[in-house]
Automatic annotation (TrEMBL):
Residue stretches making up the FAD-binding PCMH-type domain: 1-172
Name of the protein in its database record: FAD binding domain-containing protein
SUPFAM superfamilies, alphabetized: FAD-binding/transporter-associated domain-like (SSF56176)
Lineage, uppermost ranks: Bacteria, Bacillati, Actinomycetota, Actinomycetes, Kitasatosporales
UniProt superkingdom: Bacteria
Length: 274
């Protein structure tokens, strides 16, 4: 897509006043996929020099906003965390070509805020925390599950930048279960649920995405039975929060959510206890 309204491109390393019509440019796979008539200037993040993904001294996983899907996939492939397979499952949940994989960024997926964003699913399920930088230099941290508050709606302020997402070591040690459904074999996710069992206290966290307009996380301090999980989904998702678009009707998304929630419960609670 030729963004013919863009009149200037700036290096993000050059501090400048944020103004209407500005947009951060990471991989550009969304920006250049459709018309963006409101954009006048692109602020390029590609030369910021951020390390794509790294383990901190505390064992947490820090993912730069500019880390591509391919880079994250490669890094996790040889990792020994219990939750490592979940990274590849979520990377493969993209409706994307090989070229998109090598350009699309983790931060861009979060900042689009689409219900089907698999990097939102991954980082929300593993208790990820977003580090946000304001134009004035202030830093704030927001859990991923609170970062996206609606379909395409985020808590970002004008000019605020998503710097990184950090996944805590404790979450990386969780046992996980992944379920995804699409209307078509290679279609966009209509429901994507992830269960994570805490390695220390056994708490079960069930994260609902794609079928809802925002990530919804349900937590069970004690091992739940089928009725408890069903009630949690029933009352944890408001009727207006079931997503509705050409990739799935709300009734179907709701049905798949209940089905997957029970499958995940059985996998992480019942089968684990045998």
């Amino acid at each position: 897509m030729d963004l013919n309204t863009v009149v200037e491109m700036r290096d993000a390393r050059r501090r400048d006043t944020w103004r209407p019509g500005d947009a951060w440019l990471g991989g550009g796979t969304y920006l250049f996929s459709e018309p963006q008539p409101h954009i006048r200037r692109l602020i390029d993040l590609s030369r910021m020099g951020w390390e794509p993904v790294r383990l901190t001294a505390a064992g947490d996983l820090e993912i730069a906003a500019t880390c591509t899907v391919a880079q994250l996939s490669r890094f996790a492939r040889d990792a020994d965390w219990t939750a490592a397979p979940l990274v590849e499952q979520c990377c493969r949940a993209f409706l994307a070509s090989w070229k998109i994989w090598h350009m699309a960024t983790v931060g861009g997926n979060l900042c689009n805020g689409l219900p089907a964003g698999p990097m939102i699913s991954l980082t929300a399920a593993l208790d990820g925390v977003c580090t946000l930088l304001s134009q004035g230099g202030e830093v704030r941290e927001v859990p991923v599950r609170d970062f996206v508050i609606g379909a395409g709606v985020k808590v970002l302020q004008p000019g605020e930048l998503l710097r990184s997402i950090t996944l805590p070591a404790r979450a990386l040690a969780s046992r996980t279960a992944f379920r995804q459904a699409s209307l078509y074999g290679l279609g966009r996710s209509g429901a994507l649920l992830i269960g994570a069992r805490d390695p220390i206290d056994g708490e079960l966290a069930l994260t609902v995405t794609a079928s809802t307009v925002r990530p919804i996380q349900l937590r069970f301090a004690v091992p739940p039975n089928a009725e408890a999980v069903r009630e949690a989904v029933e009352y944890g998702v408001r009727p207006e929060e079931w997503f509705d678009d050409i990739h799935g009707l709300p009734a179907w998304r709701r049905h798949m959510t209940f089905r997957f929630a029970e499958e995940i419960r059985r996998e992480l609670i019942e089968e684990a206890g045998r």
